[in-house]
Amino acid sequence: AHDYSQVFNNCSIRAGSTAGTVLALPASDNRSRLGIIVAKKNVRLATDRKRIKRLVREYFRNHPLSASMSLVFMARRGAGALSNAAVIGDLDRLWRKLNHKHAQIQFEHDQ
Known about the structure:
Elements: H1 2-10, E1 13-16, E2 20-26, E3 33-37, H2 46-62, E4 69-75, H3 84-110
Parallel strand pairs: 3-4
Antiparallel strand pairs: 1-2, 2-4
Helix pairs in contact: 2-3
């Protein structure tokens, strides 16, 4: 719970898509971490909640970010109705946004 609150309170990068929103905080250690929130309010069926969690975890493992970050993925309403391919496509877009925004922050910080 403490790790989630760190990201919520100090979020420096935010990216959204149809499937959900990702909050990110650059990590001080060299490990990226992922928290996943799929609320029953937004995705009714347990099978859909588990499927989305599994897809996000699998994508996180197979597609490392350009820098270490603590991430929290929050599913949006209707994410359960998306196909696996649609969720993965959304995650592709989210990862590109995260990498781009992190590069912008690094550039501004280096100036």
